[in-house]
DNA sequence: GTAAACTAGTTTGTAACGCAAACCGATAAG
DNA sequence: CTTATCGGTTTGCGTTACAAACTAGTTTAC
């Protein structure tokens, strides 16, 4: 007794320690751009990444929700303007992602 | 005239050159294991990756469809046995993926 | 015998995701 | 007024990853 859990195999936790928020290609692109620039506006990212507007918008929202970017909206001469900044959490997440990937890839025999 | 295509912005091709078959974490795990081992059986991969059986099975099918692994089934002492091998295409895909990722990540300032 | 339990996987159902089209509120031009 | 443009956001939809449920066969228990 105690527990008659019919334990499935699902308590094997998969050996992946990868931040999916960062891992997604479109977001990796965004985040690496922001990492070197420190901040950029929507239209700049749009042209640099080649994403569509809808796509860029939703990925930015997801990064914001994750706490990785801050979105600042203001009006410049009556025209809306959106500035994106990588947060510290975002920088750290990217660096951790990088370490993980580099280690995994570097140790493959060439 | 000629064409009055109301061209959207969608002819901007996104600047991502990443093989999604390889990029998926679970499959990256599988493929890197096969890369060093050259071949392995289903149960070995199961324990090494920590994936569930269903998951492992479907990822392997996807890798097979992509032409990256070969799946050989045989009976050993009346018990089914599945051997997985990385194809040349699989090796090359992984190496190309690695180059792309390493370049992208290495050029980030530390 | 036949039933229960185990082995080695495959198939199914579902929630989440990524994508581009469609939409929206505001300004500018004709 | 109407039309187009700008700077984005929301919607709709096909695809995916995931674990639960299932399958086919084998060994063990009775």
Verbal overview:
Two copies of one chain form a homodimer. Chain A has helices at residues 20-23, 25-37, 42-49, 53-65, 88-106; strands at residues 39-41, 69-76, 79-86. Chain A is α+β, with helices and mostly antiparallel strands. The radius of gyration of chain A is 19 Å and the shape is elongated. Chain A binds chain B through residues 8-10, 12-16, 18, 20, 23, 25-26, 28-29, 32, 35-36, 48-53, 94, 98, 101-102, 104-106, 108-109, and chain B through 8-10, 12-16, 18, 20, 23, 25-26, 28-29, 32, 35-36, 48-53, 94, 98, 101-102, 104-106, 108-109. Chain B binds a DNA duplex (30 and 30 nucleotides) through residues 8-10, 24, 26, 42-43, 46, 51-59, 61-62, 73, 78-82.
Provide a brief overview of the structure.
2 copies of one chain form a homodimer. The first copy, chain A, is of the alpha+beta class and 110 residues long. Chain A has one domain: Orthogonal Bundle (Arc Repressor Mutant, subunit A), CATH 1.10.10.
Write the layout of secondary structure elements.
The structure is a homodimer of 110-residue chains.
Chain A: H1 20-23, H2 25-37, E1 39-41, H3 42-49, H4 53-65, E2 69-76, E3 79-86, H5 88-106
The structure holds a DNA duplex (30 and 30 nucleotides).
Notable traits:
homodimer, 110 residues, alpha+beta, Arc Repressor Mutant, subunit A, three-stranded antiparallel sheet, 5 helices, 3 strands, elongated, DNA-binding
CATH topology of chain A, what is it called?
Answer: Arc Repressor Mutant, subunit A
Name the beta content range of chain A.
15-25%
Radius of gyration of chain A: 19 Å
* Helix amount of chain A: 40-55%
Stretches of chain A where pLDDT is under 50 for at least 5 consecutive residues are 1-11
Q: What would CATH call the class of chain A?
A: Mainly Alpha
Order of helices and strands of chain A: HHEHHEEH
**Total number of β-strand segments of chain A?**
3
Indicate how many domains the architecture of chain A comprises: 1
Largest sheet of chain A: 3 strands, antiparallel
What is the end-to-end distance of chain A?
Answer: 53 Å
Across the major sheet of chain A, the strand order is: 1-3-2
Label the structural class of chain A: alpha+beta
Largest interface comes to: A-B, 33 and 33 residues
């Amino acid at each position: 007794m105690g527990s008659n859990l019919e334990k499935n195999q699902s308590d094997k936790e998969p050996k992946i320690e990868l931040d999916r928020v960062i891992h997604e290609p479109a977001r990796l692109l965004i985040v690496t751009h922001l990492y070197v620039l420190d901040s950029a506006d929507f239209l700049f990212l749009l042209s640099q990444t080649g994403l569509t507007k809808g796509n860029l918008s939703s990925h930015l929202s997801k990064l914001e929700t994750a706490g990785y970017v801050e979105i600042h909206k203001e009006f410049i001469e009556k025209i809306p303007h959106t500035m994106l900044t990588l947060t510290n959490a975002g920088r750290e997440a990217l660096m951790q992602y990088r370490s993980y990937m580099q280690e995994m890839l570097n140790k493959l025999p060439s």
